[in-house]
Fold:
Amino acid sequence: LTLMKGTIMSDNSSIASLLERRKAILAEEPKLRARNLAERLGISEAELVALGSAQATVTRLRPEWTAIIGAVGELGRVMALTRNESVVHERKGVYGKLEGGAHVGLIVGDDIDLRIFFSQWKYGFAQVERMEDGTTRRSLQFFDAQGTAIHKIYQTDKTDAAAFDALIERFATGASPLEIAPAAEAKKPLADSEIDVAGFRNAWDAMTDTHQFHGLVTKFKVERLQGLRLAGESRARRVPQAALRATLETARDRGVPIMVFVGNPGMIQIHTGTVENLKPMGPWFNVLDEAFNLHLREDHIDSAWVVWKPTEDGTVTSLELFDKDGTLIATLFGKRKPGVPEDKAWREIVNGLTEKEAA
Structure:
């Protein structure tokens, strides 16, 4: 058994118990995702990785996040994975140059497109697994202070395995205890009556770039979903929860390229391009294309909104999905570059959602 020493679970009997319980759960549900397995075991996902296994060697990484991510481009084609509670976003490609600083970084490329919030990163591991088919799968996995997964990078059949091993060796460090922090208490939002709605709407109409929206909600101390509710129907309109499926199916049928944003507090990952192979499986709605996979829990969509934001290049239209807690699950846009007006084909798809609802 390859066990990572010095984890938070220092009691050998409790480690043995965890390993037995994990084995029993996986015997019944071999394809259970790590996040759900950790939840069933009552530990964080970071602790689950640190446990190691008979099939996996785990190496703790030094918290030199910008250096590590800056070196991933040397590995060749990999698979980038970012998820939150409701959706998994997987994109294959080569990591481009890391730009930005120690707190916020970005990688902008046709395949790998990331907005990275390094201030949220706390733990990093490399894992080398022996798979059932005899192959070896290498991965880099990064977690926040609560042990929740932020971002993972997996080897593909076009990855330079020797370069991957060299990267692991370069950033390896001795194991030390994982000090898993409790989840921060959610801030109580202001009541609608406390929001300057007129000022908020005026500031919305004065936006010249979609990136100004974050500053807008911060300035007026409004939660994102609350802001959509208060914006007025000319700026944001609620549509049926089935809007995601309808949008993806229409974009596929019409060959319209889209942008799919999925994030968590430490990372936003973006796919730009068409979608082709759509497949519902139980509660999950999936995109199963060669370079892009999306797995989204449709039953987690509590509300869906079409949102119109003014920019210097004209109106930009998005579809935003929220869970029952008002947390943003995913956002969809039409494919566009700064300085270029929005694709009319995309606008027709999403505006069609609101027309059906009105009818």
Q: What stands out?
A: DSSP finds ten helices and 19 strands in the chain.
